[in-house]
Write a structure and sequence with these properties.
It is built from two helices and 15 strands. By secondary structure, the chain is mainly beta. It has one domain: Jelly Rolls, CATH 2.60.120.200. Strands 1, 3, 4, 6, 11, 12, 13 and 15 form an eight-stranded antiparallel β-sheet that branches. It starts with a strand and ends with a strand.
Length: 228
């Protein structure tokens, strides 16, 4: 197990007003609002359209390889599913928004079998009956659809939830660790061989699967430093 220390804040965004979302990029169609003083996202397309109804909302910043990413999450309406993409770049190292990359529209296959590389953790997975019956958080590495780690999801259904839930992803060296309200959910070390080289820095983005409605606040990225 890798030990790490969380260092200085390099990005903080309260996500409390429309101005805080300036520069963010939406892939797919969604309603983005701030009626409760925090970012609320919900699909615009009919969930019956399947993957076409889902979307990703990308932060405009590019972050270094070793970071802690934290935010507050309010589940408002289910079913649905939430994902955080991180360390996202083009497969050949291009910036994620490089115009040479194929345009993305929120359909999941574009993100795991397109022309980008990324890590992505799915949490509050409540879309399908089996997800609602047995709650887990999953970590996948792309290119490809490689599930590399899994842990129990402690967030209850919306009716019993007492948000906000503080969610944290730490990517430090070859290790990714995930926690909710400081409860460790999983930790995984990338061997750099089984699923391709260890990913470095890149962009982060929030994905929702319709018809989930979720709210987000206080996005903070801090440096992570290997220790011990």
């Amino acid at each position: 197990m890798c030990s790490f220390e969380i260092g200085v804040t390099i990005y903080h965004n309260p996500l409390g007003a429309e101005s805080d979302a300036s520069g963010f990029r939406l892939e797919g169609e969604a309603r983005v609002s701030f009626s409760n003083g925090r970012l609320r996202m919900e699909n615009l397309r009919d969930p019956a359209e399947g993957q076409r109804s889902n979307f990703v909302f990308w932060c405009p910043e590019t972050f270094p390889a070793d970071v802690s990413i934290g935010w507050e999450f309010w589940p408002v309406q289910e079913p649905g599913l939430c994902i955080l993409f991180f360390a996202a770049t083009g497969r050949n190292g291009e910036d994620l928004f490089d115009p040479s990359l194929t345009a993305r529209t929120g359909e999941y296959q574009q993100y795991h079998h397109g022309d980008i590389s990324a890590l992505h953790v799915s949490y509050f997975r409540r879309r399908w009956p089996e997800e609602r019956a047995f709650h887990t958080c999953n970590l996948r590495k792309s290119y490809g659809f490689h599930m590399v780690a899994q842990g129990a999801d402690p967030i209850p259904p919306v009716a019993d939830a007492t948000p906000p839930y503080r969610i944290q992803v730490v990517k430090c060296g070859a290790v990714v660790a995930f926690s909710i309200n400081e409860l460790p959910i999983f930790s995984w070390r990338d061997d750099g061989v089984s699923y391709g080289p260890v990913l470095g820095g890149g962009r982060i983005g929030f994905r929702q699967m319709a018809p989930l409605v979720g709210e987000y606040a206080n996005l903070e990225v801090r440096r992570a430093v290997v220790s011990g």
